[in-house]
Design brief:
Radius of gyration: 24 Å
Largest sheet: 9 strands, mixed
Number of strands: 20
Structural class: alpha/beta
Bound molecules: ligand BES, manganese (II) ion, zinc ion
Mean pLDDT: 97
Helix content: 25-40%
Shape: elongated
Number of helices: 14
Length: 491
């Protein structure tokens, strides 16, 4: 059960709760905590003045006052100005701390002066952070003999209730739910989360929210001529799918969101090394971000027209698999020489981007765990963005900043196009190692026609093998909140 959150108009002092988390920025004692501090015998002021508690990001110190809160946790926000990302993160730290403490409820207060943010925005990102911090996946483990109480509820304390704050909470809950949908899908192993599983999940999601979902199976894909997607799938016993979701909250040309849905990437005949190959179950993270975003749309029902496209396949080596040197004819009509079967993501995305033309999109965004090169270039801190339209790229950069899912633009000059030139076909599917993220994006661009488009490479940020005070290891839902922020800003 995901964490239930609610807004409560209450001062932190005098609020009875098993754990009161108070977020404090670096550099001094916030005046709004004076009443609370008196209740704890001046301990907060002493912790701050002694610099035992500095307020640096992720810092957390627990006090045990004589009431009415059983515990008070000071949580650091880092150096000002206090950003959405800092507040979201502090809320996640608080939720994780509450889980470790074994309490079933946490109350979160953002110290007054810290709020450079409008209250509605603060409540939105606190909601997102609390739910994300509490997320974990225990579904495949035997339950422990002495289970801790589950953290089931969180309260967000505000100075006063208002319609704006209630709306901020509604948005925060929807974005948080989108994030949970994405992570719950990402975390599933490849033998469970297959292309058919993604399709069933999308169909169920659509049914819950009244969003029409169409699924193209192998026969329909053959009819359509999606031979690049079919080519990737032909080495696996898992059936490929193209999932099409259409949310119609408004008329007019849609925003199209495309997500790479490779449910396991072994590399195919160009097989990957064994080391950490298990992480390639996360190669459907772009798909998870798209499906998560539709959960947000279903909950908020904004005045937008959005189409989701999820091409999905498993990339395996076998006697029927694509081989290096093979040539396939794509849905767009261009022929592709397969020089590396491990460059499969761009093949399935090429057919999906070509399919997108029929919707006459206002614009299209895709998210994909596309290249190892983006990990070399940007590490695990930011995704890459490349696009055909400067305004669209700016919009994506801004959405990523608001979402706490940063992306950074890479150059997309014509010079890079040559890397994908083939001797035998219109284009080849790998430009080799130099500028690997850019040549992959250029490959996709060969199949984009008639609409502004931006591509997000999230290979370095979709999952993490580092636990932090704010998050467990594993899936991050990268791209989900970015898509949500992008869309909500277009309402
Ligand atoms: N799914 C991988 C990219 C990836 C790498 C995702 C690391 C997550 C973490 C993609 O399909 C791939 O294998 N890309 C190749 C392309 C190359 C063969 C041109 C790569 O980046 O090595
Ligand atoms: Mn691959
Ligand atoms: Zn892949």
């Amino acid at each position: 059960m995901p964490l239930a959150t609610k807004v409560v108009a209450a001062a932190p002092a005098g609020h009875a709760t098993p754990l009161l988390a108070v977020a404090i920025p670096e550099g001094g004692f916030p005046r709004s905590l004076e009443a609370l501090d008196r209740q704890v015998g001046g301990t907060i002021a002493r912790l701050v003045s002694s610099r035992d508690f500095t307020g640096e990001a992720d810092q957390a110190t627990v006090l045990y006052p004589s009431g009415p809160a059983t515990r008070v946790a000071l949580v650091g926000l880092g150096k000002g100005p206090v950003t959405r990302a800092a507040v979201r993160r502090a809320a996640a730290v608080a939720a994780r701390l509450a889980q470790r403490q074994g309490v079933d409820r946490v109350s979160f207060h953002l110290a007054g002066e810290a709020a450079g943010l409008p209250p509605a925005e603060a409540v939105q990102v606190i909601t997102e952070g609390l739910v994300a911090g509490a997320w974990r996946f225990l579904g495949m483990k035997r339950p422990p003999d002495d289970p801790k109480p589950e953290l089931a509820a969180a309260e967000i304390l505000v100075a006063e209730a208002s319609d704006a704050v209630a709306e901020g909470h509604r948005v925060g809950e929807a974005v948080a739910a989108a994030h949970v949908v994405a992570r719950d899908l990402q975390v599933l192993p490849g033998n469970v989360c297959t292309p058919t599983h993604l399709a069933t999940t999308a169909t169920d999601l659509g049914r819950r929210h009244g969003i029409p979902v169409t699924v193209l199976d192998r026969a329909a894909l053959q009819q359509e001529g999606m031979n690049a997607l079919l080519g990737v799938a032909q080495g696996s016993v898992q059936e490929p799918r193209l999932i099409v979701l259409e949310y119609r909250g408004a008329d007019g040309p849609p925003v199209v969101l495309v997500g790479k849905g490779i449910t396991f990437d072994s590399g195919g005949i160009s097989i990957k090394p064994a080391e950490r190959m298990e992480d390639m179950k996360f190669d459907m993270s772009g798909a998870a971000a798209v499906l998560g975003t539709f959960e947000m749309l279903g909950r908020l029902k904004p005045a937008l027209h959005v189409v989701g496209l999820v091409p999905s396949a498993e990339n395996m080596p076998s006697g029927t698999a694509l081989k290096p040197g093979d040539v396939v004819k794509s849905h767009f009509g261009k022929t592709i020489e397969i020089v590396n079967t491990d460059a499969e993501g761009r093949l399935i995305l090429a057919d999906a981007l070509s399919y997108a033309r029929r919707f006459k999109p206002a614009c299209a965004l895709d998210a994909a765990t596309l290249t190892g090169a983006v990990v070399i270039g940007l590490g695990h801190t930011a995704g890459a963005v490349l696009g055909t339209d400067a305004d669209l790229v700016r919009e994506v950069l801004a959405a990523g900043e608001r979402a706490g899912e940063r992306v950074w633009e890479l150059p997309f000059w014509d010079e890079y196009r040559e890397l994908n030139k083939s001797e035998i076909a219109d284009v080849k599917n790998s430009g080799g190692r130099p500028a690997g993220t850019i040549s992959a994006a250029w490959f996709l661009r060969e199949f984009v026609e008639g609409f502004p488009w931006a591509h997000l490479d999230i290979a370095g940020t979709a999952y993490t093998d580092k636990e932090t005070p704010a998050s467990v290891k594993g899936p991050t839902a990268m791209g989900t909140r970015l898509f949500c922020e992008f869309l909500l800003a277009r309402r």
